[in-house]
Every structure is written in C-alpha cells, then in structure tokens.
Amino acid sequence: MLQPRGLWQRFRSTAAMLIPALTALAMVPVIVAGAASAAAAVSQAPVFTSAPTATIQTQDGDGYQVTASCDPACTFTSAGVLPPTVQIDSGGLIEGAPPEGSEGVYHFTVIASNSAGTATQAFTLNVDQLAAIGVEGTDGQLWVQSPQLSPGWHSLGGKIAAPPAVAAPPNTCCTYPSQSPTIPVFIATGTDGHLWARTATSLWQVLSPTGTCVGAPAAVITGTPLTGPFTLTVACRGTDNALWENSVTLLGNGLPPTIMTAWRDLGGVLRAGPAVAPVNGTITFFALGTTGRIYTRTLATGYQETSWPCIGQPNAAAQTVGEAVVNGVDTQSTDFVCEGADHALWQSVFNWNGAALGTWSVFYSQGGSVVGSPAIAPAGSAIEQVVEGTDHAIWVGIPGKWVRLGGQAVGGVGAAALN
User: Fold this and answer.
1) CB 395 within 8 A of CB 344
2) Tell me, what DSSP letter sits at residue 356?
3) Residue-wise pLDDT tens digits, 393-403
4) 254-284 in b/e burial notation, b at 16+ Cβ within 10 A?
5) E-strand stretches of 224-274
6) Nearest to 115, CA basis, from 38, 41, 34
7) Which tens digit of pLDDT belongs to each residue from 31-81?
C-alpha cells in the first residue's frame, strides 16, 4: 500500500509528461471552412507604368520597353501605324530598325491585356535620324538635317564657301533613347575665308578670326562620353595649299568658344580639303597629295603615303565606343571614305583597342556614284555612308541599298553620328 508521499510523487511525474502534450495541442491552428479562399491572390487588370512616348533612331536596333502593372502577366499588342520594320512584341518591347527616310512622329495605341481586363495607352513614337547632316545649298547657305529640328531639310543661313564639317561630342553606345543625342556643331568656311560655327538652334559665330581656309574644313570632337572634357580639333587647306590645324576646349555640349590661338602649319601640298579622326586613340589627319593618293600624319609624326587613290576631299570618323569583340577584347574602329577614281564610294577600316590590332583593311568599293566629298558617320549600332549623288541630292548608304534623302547640295556633304 502506497503512502501519501508516494502518491504525490506519482502525480507530479504523470503531470510532467502530460503538460507538454497539452501545450502542443493548444498550438495546433483551428481551420475554418472557406478561410483558404479568402487568402487567395486577387487578379489585377492592367495599369500602364511606362511613359506614353519614346524616341528611336533610324537604323538603330535599340528599342523601348512598355511596362504595366498586371496580374497575371499582360500580353501587349498595338493598333495603328508604326514606323517601317518596327513592331511591339507580346512582352511590350517596341523594337526594330526603321530605315532612312522614315523620320517623323508616329501615333498609335498600345494595348495591354490579361484575364482580369484590358487597358489602352495612346503612344507617340519619334523616329530621329541617326546622324546630323550638313551641305552647302545651291543658294550658298547651310542646309541641315538634325534630330534637334523637325524632319526634313532646314536652312541655317549664312554664306559658306564649301560643304561644312559636322562634329559632335562622343555619346555612349546603345543607350538611346535614355541618352539624348548629342548636339552637333556645323563648321563652315565663310566667304571671308575664316571658319564660322553654329548649332541647329544657335546663331552663327566666328570660330577662328585668324587663319584663312580654302575649301571645306575638317573637324572632330574627342573626349570622355557624356562628361567630357571635350576638345574640338579643326583642320583645313590653307592659301599656301599646306595642311593647317588648330584646337579648342569645349565648355559643354554646345557651341565651341572662339579659337584665339595661332594655327599650326603641318606642311604638305594638298589638292583638296583634309579629313581628321582618331586612329588608335591618336588624332590623325588625312590629305590628298599631288600624287592622287592619300597621305596620313599626326601631330607627332610626318606624312605617310597610303595606296588609296582618291578624287577630292576625303572623310574619316571613329566609332567612339566599342562596337565588336575580337578575341575577347572590346574593339573600336576608324572608317575612311573618299570618292574613288571610278566615282564610286571607297572605304577602308582600322580596328583598334588601345593597341593596334593590325593595319588598315583593304581599300574596297561600296558602289554608288559620288559627287564631291562623301561623309561617314559610325554610331553605336550602325554606320551611315552619306554622299551627294549625281542628281545633287543626298543619299545614305544602308546595307544592301542607297536611300535618297533629297535636298540640293554643292560639292559634297558633312555628317556626324550622334551616339
């Protein structure tokens, strides 16, 4: 027979085992019928979250992403007229490479749909030109096409003596439209022999009150994309037929200040105006010599004869950012063009990555029929070849064909890529 003390000890032992079990049971949730359906996600009809306007460039494959808040995910379509080759995919990406000649403003509707509903957005798509182009018109004035202006040709006035040079600060690759096109500078020889400059929206100002140029000048702006500092280098054929050069620091993305320093005589005997562009990071000048071939030189080295036979003033331009990967290295290029002896457009290319990857490519024909000085405008995703045709209109070379931009030019064309 157990004593009272033993009974008490057994009771305490049994309680110690039961209390944790009872506590665990108390923590088990009570499920009420129908509560699970109350916690289910609620569908959301589409609501647009992206801007109803965008800008793309001709020949540029960069697109614009339309976005909307919706659950389940939206499917996007469009209604109305989009630019040629441009479309919107089911994920909302507006993409395509509109051809030259398709510049303008396009209005259409973007439609976002899911199982919860449909939303529409009136959309405006601006198609800008890839490059800024300038010519001397038959009236002796500067005529241009530029994204800062409405589509088509615009007279910027003045009295110029030859086709202009067009230069623009380097932009970053493939960020358009998140990065606006840089502001081009049009530089021309006035009837007084001095260089004059203006942008698409500013007035003319004298760029160089000293030095006298004969024919069309050459110009290039170099520096760190977007932030600078930038340097404008100009060159021209002097009254002594030698190559003359000068430079000035740009204060911003706009009109350069007047050049007050003395011009530098680089010698030689030129038959036409020069070209200037970076080659492997070094400012390089291209001049048509008395032999009918192109000579190159830098500020530090003398003239080197090439095998390129040309007629009239050449042109050259460098891709400002990497355009291709060669053996794992991001490369850049400099493109040289001129009117060949057969009056077609001829070209050579130099690839570089801070150290020369080789020599200039073979000199090859791009076809067409060129009058006067051609231009080359290599941008982030395309290279525009711009020439004056035998009808004196401006033509742009794109893969597989030439597109007529119209206008009436005298003696050639100047152009510069804007990103």
Assistant:
1) no
2) B
3) 999 886 667 88
4) ebbeebeeebeebebebbbbbbbbbbbeebb
5) 230-238, 243-250, 264-265
6) 41
7) 444 444 444 568 999 999 999 998 777 766 667 899 999 999 999 999 999
What torsion do the CA atoms of 297, 300, 302, 305 make, to the nearest 10 degrees? -30
pLDDT of residue 225: 78
Mean pLDDT, the chain, integer? 84
Sheet holding 87-88: strands in order across? 64-65, 93-95, 87-88
Q: How far from chain centre, in Å, is Cα 177?
A: 9
Q: How far apart are CA 100 and CA 415, in angstroms?
A: 14
- Compute how many other C-beta atoms are within 10 angstroms of the C-beta atom of residue 392: 15
Q: How far apart are CA 142 and CA 396, in angstroms?
A: 19
Domains of the chain in sequence order: 44-127 (2.60.40.10), 129-417 (2.120.10.30)
First-to-last C-alpha distance (Å) of the chain: 103
Q: How far apart are CA 134 and CA 403, in angstroms?
A: 17
Return the DSSP state at 381.
S
List beta partners, residue 296.
Answer: 286, 304
CB 277 within 8 A of CB 317: yes
Torsion angles phi and psi, residue 191, rounded to 5: -65, -15
Rounded Cα distance, 272 and 362, in Å: 23
Please say whether the beta carbons of 342 and 133 come within 8 A. Answer: no
Cβ neighbours of 105 (radius 10 Å):
13
Region 118-125: mean pLDDT is 95
- The confidence score (pLDDT) of residue 383 equals 80
The HSE-up count of residue 75 (CA atoms within 13 Å, CB side) is: 5
Is residue 243 a contact partner of residue 266, using CB atoms and an 8 Å limit? yes
pTM score of the predicted model:
0.77
Q: Residue 102: which region, alpha, beta or left (left: phi > 0; alpha: psi -120 to 50)?
A: alpha
CB proximity list for 240: less than 8 A, separation 6 or greater? none
Q: Which residue, among 329, 72, 56, 96, has the nearest Cα to 176 in the 3D structure? A: 56
Closest CA relative to residue 256, chosen from 342, 186, 178: 186
